[in-house]
Structures are given as structure tokens and as C-alpha cells.
Amino acid sequence: MKQFLLTCLCAVGLLSGVQAQDVIMKRSGEKLEAKVLEITPSEIKYKRFESLEGPTYIIPKNDVTLIQYANNTSETFEFDPSAQTAEPVRAELTAAPEMLSVNLVEKGQLDATNHYDGYKAAGTGTLVASLLSPLIGLVPAIACSVTPPRDRNLDSPDHQLMQKPDYKTGYVKNARKIKSRKVWKNWGIGLGVNVVLAVLLAQ
Questions:
Q1: Amino acid 102: pLDDT
Q2: I need a surface site. Which of 28, 99, 101, 174 has the fewest CB within 10 A?
Q3: What is the rounded distance in angstroms from the CA atom of residue 185 to the CA atom of residue 145?
Q4: Which residues pair with 68 in a beta bridge?
């Protein structure tokens, strides 16, 4: 019994590590879930957490008040009146025109991050099954995570762009990652609840 509980606790720890992310707090109150790549004297470079293989973004440090890192440390930033502020931009925007296909893939990934929510049914089903039994929950979790989202569930904001192969490839690829992440997160929640109950009952 103790070995089983130890294994479950390790699994919960691994799952929480996979979901770790940095949080950028802007002066406007907006919160960005991200992976911080680099901090320069005037800028912060990051990737959106939902699209780690997508474009790199740049935001002025003056627009940021605090960064909460995945390791539970934080860093605050003072406003510098001598520095100019601007909207976040993509670092790849300087690419040559022949990179259009790459930009379409990235746009598809970004749109999936902002609009895809077709994972909800799969995530809810996995959560319910996992609360009953983590072993039973593995069945829908594995099945849903390896199955690409159906076209009718993609929720693309631009059906004309969806006809372009490069855009659709980027959108579907990122939608599948989002779906898999959400499904396994819900399985982890179900596992965690069962571990806590098992510990309480064992006392």
C-alpha cells in the first residue's frame, strides 16, 4: 500500500512539473502564461505557454511589474521613465517574404492557442473516469491524447485560412497538443484526489 501511494505521489509530482509555467504580470493588470527566454535591460523575450513551439514575443520591461517563475521565485520590475513603451511584438516579424508559409504555420498555432476549446468534452470525460479510478481514467486519457481533434471541433476563427495547408497544419498540431495537455491535467487531478483519499483512509 505504501509503495502504491509513493508511486502515485511521484506521478503527481511529475505531472505538476510538466505543467509548470512562468507568469508575467503587466502593469495593465493582464496576466500572461509564458516561458521566459531572456531578460535584457529594456525587453523581455518569451513564448506563450500554450504554444512553446510558436513565435517568440518581445515586451518592454516598463510594461511588466512582476514575473512569477515556475520554480516559485519571483522578480519585480520598476518603471523607468526614460524608456519608451510599446506593444508586444513577435521577434520573427522581420522574416523575409519567402517565409510566408512558416508564418502561416505560426499563425495557425497562435489562433489555436486563442480559440481552440474543443478539448472540453474529452477533458471532462477523463476527469470523471479518473475520479472513479485513475486506472479507468487512463483509458480515455490515452485514447483522447493520441486522437487528433475532429474538424468540427477545431473552432478556427478564419475558415478561409483553414483551407491553406500550412495554416491548418499549425492549427491542428497545436490544438492536438492543447487537447493532450488538458486531458492529462484532468487525469492528474483525478489521480491526486484518489491519492489524498487513500492517505486519509490509511490513517
A1: 58
A2: 28
A3: 11
A4: 23, 74
CB 61 within 8 A of CB 77: yes
pLDDT tens digit sequence for 68-121? 998 889 999 988 877 655 555 555 444 444 445 558 888 888 888 888 888 888
**Mean of per-residue pLDDT scores for the chain:** 80
Q: How many CB atoms lie within 10 A of CB 134?
A: 20
All structural domains of the chain: 20-93 (2.30.30.100), 120-202 (no CATH)
Between the alpha carbon of residue 190 and those of residues 58, 75, 84, 186, 194, the distances in Å are: 37, 33, 47, 6, 6
Cα–Cα distance for residue pair 201/51, rounded to 1 Å: 40
Tell me which of 72 and 203 has the higher pLDDT: 72
Do 152 and 109 contact (CB within 8 A), yes or no?
no
Contact indicator for 161, 108 with CB cutoff of 8 Å: yes
